[in-house]
Design goal:
heterodimer, A: mainly alpha, globular, B: mainly alpha, 8 helices, 0% strand
Chain lengths: 168, 171
């Protein structure tokens, strides 16, 4: 059912643009070209991220961390396969997408784990990157409980994702 | 640790990782090319501005008193995030933070709210994830849409409530 939403949305966007007498084709072209610039800025980060994550995984460090955290996550209903994703996600979206694709490859994109991971990635955002950029625009030195609250919300998001995927 | 065990693996791992990175970039290029094109149409029709106007009342209630410019920036930040225009949201968010800056060392309630709202994600449509699912051969890529929407907004609401509760005596 949800599969219909995107085609409807696309039709809506195009119709709205016609109503507003906007040149949809030209807008589309302008927008699409931006993808190249975006990837250009992202590429160095993605490459660095991939390398760091692979080293992290192959060296066994991530396994150790996951081993420590999974029992705790299991208690609150999060499958242990998602531990790596949950650890990495608040630090970087792209790293998260990397781990997501790994999960798709290893456990199947339509499996319970694959769906939980998808919901988790699609419903959260980075914490540390956002917080540091936004606060750096101000003179604030004491962010107080901002980051702990954000972390708590992200954990809640993880629990919720796994819960919802059980029957949605 | 890897360096200590099998040094030969280090370079191999790094090159393999780099190759995977480039593959992923190309896949992303495809996903972004489609969505940025569509989003640009949306943007040029000023839909994000319309949405931000709709948001001004709720933003007022949540954030409290701030000057008009800052309120507008907050609304545009939230509206851009909702529509998935993350790169557009950031400059508005930064300007809003500056507008809320009173020179104090401590974060104000409004700043905390904005940061937490941005950190918990408020994007309605998880386009990148759905794109990646389709590329991975999912039977129904968008089937995660409804759970994702719920999982997007409930933690955000939790964050807002927590900040308002814990800092109800603060400005």
């Amino acid at each position: 059912m949800a599969d219909i939403i995107f085609p409807i949305l696309i039709v809506f966007v195009l119709t709205y643009s016609i109503i507003k007498k906007n040149d949809a084709y030209k807008s589309f072209q302008n927008g699409t070209v931006g993808a190249i610039d975006l990837i250009k800025t992202l590429l160095p980060t993605i490459v660095a991220m991939f390398i760091a994550i692979e080293l992290f995984k192959v060296s066994g460090l991530s396994q150790i961390l996951a081993n420590i955290l999974s029992p705790i996550f299991n208690l609150i209903g999060i499958p242990k396969e998602l531990t790596e994703l949950i650890i990495i996600r608040p630090f970087s979206s792209n790293a998260g997408y990397v781990v997501l694709q790994d999960i798709f490859k290893n456990y199947g994109v339509d499996s319970y784990v694959g769906r939980c991971a998808s919901v988790l990635m699609g419903s959260s955002d980075t914490i540390f990157y956002v917080a540091s950029i936004y606060f750096s625009a101000t003179k604030v030195k004491k962010t107080m409980l901002t980051i702990p609250i954000a972390v708590l919300c992200n954990i809640f998001c993880a629990i919720l994702s796994c819960l919802l995927c059980r029957f949605m | 640790m890897l360096l200590l065990s099998t040094p030969a693996n280090v370079v191999l791992t790094m090159i393999g990782a780099s190759k995977n990175a480039i593959t992923m970039c190309i896949e992303f290029l495809g996903i972004y090319a489609l969505w940025l094109g569509l989003l640009q149409i949306l943007d040029d029709t000023k839909l994000s501005h319309k949405l931000s106007q709709l948001l001004s009342k709720p933003v007022d209630k949540i954030f409290g008193k701030y000057d008009d410019d800052t309120k507008k920036n907050i609304c545009l930040n939230v509206a851009s995030n909702i529509l998935g225009l993350g790169s557009a949201a950031t400059p508005f968010g930064l300007k809003a933070m500056q507008g809320m800056d009173k020179g104090s060392e401590k974060a104000t309630k409004g700043m905390m709210l904005l940061v937490v709202i941005n950190s918990t994600g408020i994007q309605v449509l998880p386009t990148t994830v759905i794109g990646l699912r389709a590329l991975a051969g999912s039977v129904s890529p968008s089937s995660i849409l409804f759970p994702t929407i719920i999982a997007t907004y409930l933690p955000t609401i939790l964050g807002i409530l927590l900040i308002k509760l814990i800092y109800r005596k603060l400005k």
